[in-house]
Amino acid sequence: MKRLYTHFGDRLFALVLVLLASGVILAAFLMAYELYKGGSLALSKEGFWGFLVGVKWDPVIEKSFGAWPYVLGTLIVSLSALFLSFFPALAAAIFAAEYAPRWLAQIINYLLDLTAAVPSVVYGLWGIFVMAPWIRDHLMLPTYLWAAEQAPWLLPFLGNPSGYGLLTAILILAAMVVPFTAALARDAIQLVPKEQREAAYALGATRWEVLRLAVLPLARAGILAGAFLALARAMGETMAVTMVIGNSHKLPYTLFGGAATMPSVIANEFTEAVEDLHLSALIAVGFYLFVVSFLVNLLAGYVLRRQEALARGVR
Amino acid sequence: MTNAAAKTKELALRARYRRDRFMQALVGLGTVLALLVLFLVMAYALLKGVSALNLDFFTHDMRPPGEAGGGLRQAIVGTLIVDGLALLLALPFGLAAGILMAEYKEHPLAPVVRLLGDTMNGMPAILFGLLAFILVVKPMGGFSALSGSVALGFLMVPIIARATEGVLLLVPREIREAGLALGLPRWRVILSLVLPTARAGLVTGVMLAFARAAGEAAPLLFTAFGNPFLSFDLLKPMDTLPLRLFQFAISPYDDWHRLAWGAGLVLFALIVLSSALARLAIRR
After folding, report:
1. Which residue in A83, A240, B207, B231 has the most C-beta neighbors within 10 A?
2. Closest-CA distance of chain B to residue A284, Å
3. A213-228, pLDDT tens digit by residue?
4. Which CATH number fits domain A39-311: 1.10.3720.10, 1.10.3210.10, 1.10.3470.10, 3.30.70.100?
């Protein structure tokens, strides 16, 4: 601390540094404040709670705004995508950290980085023209026809098999969030000390037993942090989801049919919102999204720091 | 040991080996599954994108629907302008935050900057668009390239900060100690010794932030907004590749779909190229 302030140049440099770096702190507070203020018109009309659980979103006739269809859509889509992506992501992490030779592990790491870096719109483009038609023809239509003959009571839960809807969004999102779980899980697995493995091998454990008994339990916090980060990404993912989810205002109760998420409704309606109340309602949805993302990211950071502390402790 | 007991033991061992092999296969299968969509997206972007790329793609503006041909010059130029300006806006803040976190660990603000920076890093990109809309578009009364740059700039700051911190932590301690031992003040040590040593890594981090922002469409939907004509006016709407790709993809015209695949391939190539260069720079 002392060295920082002995020299005039140092004092100046540190001051400039701190002023600029405070921009990060300011940005976070600014976002929270501005989104809250921007959404306050809609929030005060519907009530903080009423806006959250209201199911009617009608900007034209009744001018009533309830965000629940989008909140629920976000929860369903992101949690399902996380669930679907978790085991492949964990497998990729285990493969890269434990099984693969160095050169192959490097390629896999590069591909995982690439998966995270490919723009969302490119996934969406592929989703619209390749994935959605394929899912419609090979997954939705057969299931629909089967249900029509064998289990007609199922039809209302399946919805219109157009190819664009909840299921398609979940599947593409699952592919997109794989790298976030995989990268942190891989790092956590690599942090587990060699001695742990050697001890287990010395007792005659097979490779899988070593992983299950000596490695994965110690990497648990890191894997969990990765899952949280993937969840945060899935909740905020906008373009690809908007392009394939079908954008419906109704509660998402059908698997094949259209739905919407918090980011997708903002993306879809923002430029069409001419009235202040409608604009405010969309910003309020953004405020909810901010709060939830903030909390999930914070949680991920907390769990990750615990993993790092654990790794240092074992070492 | 009786024969029967030995037999049971061997069977149990075999079951364990079988389980081991089974789990290995499962791990391999999961890895393939995890990367499957990436391969498919790559294959299609290449397959469909290559046929859309020609000289016109880079030298002509888009044409109205029904008129064949045309390119995406206005979007390519716009991406470079909006993204470049965003980088200029974000660079001082991001670098300063990174230096503070790596070189002034004892400063009381350093952990706060790190915590909030990491949290903002995971924020949905569209929220940066909302923020820029409230801060720039609304007061200025219209969509503009500048507001798009502000949105992307906010997005870039935590990425640059993170990368800067990571790179500076790789600089050996001895370099700083040598500088301090020669009687250099701390700021000179950082500016003249630490930063130049880390230059390749810093450039890499900045490049990755640039590439990441170049692929974003969501924050630009209601900031830079898009513009079918080549424009250099920062206070007017401006086109960008991801945004144009989005609009073309949801349009009903085949010709526009073709251009969308071209745009997809260009974005894809940009990402692959920058991350490959980044790897090269770090290895050196």
Report:
1. A240
2. 10
3. 999 999 999 999 999 9
4. 1.10.3720.10
Name the CA dihedral angle for A272, A275, A277, A283, rounded to a multiple of 10 degrees: 40
CA distance A208 to B22: 9
Q: Percent of chain B beyond pLDDT 90?
A: 82
The answer for B 144-203 residues in CB contact with A (under 8 A) is 154, 157-158, 161, 185-188, 190-191
Domain ranges in chain A are 39-311
| pLDDT classification of A5: cutoffs 50, 70, 90 | low
pLDDT single digits (tens) B183-227: 899 899 999 999 999 998 899 889 989 999 999 999 999 999 999
Could A243 and B246 be called an inter-chain contact, meaning their C-beta atoms sit closer than 8 Å? yes
Q: ipTM for the complex?
A: 0.94
CB–CB contact A243 B190 (8 Å)? no
Across the interface, of B36, B161, B187, the residue whose CB is closest to A10 is: B187
Global pTM value: 0.94
- C-alpha span between A226 and B146 (Å, rounded): 35
Distance from CA of A234 to the nearest CA of B (A): 9
Tokens of A35: 């989104």
Question: Long-range contacts made by residues A198-201, C-beta under 8 angstroms, separation at least 24?
Answer: none
H-helix or E-strand spanning residue A242: helix A239-244
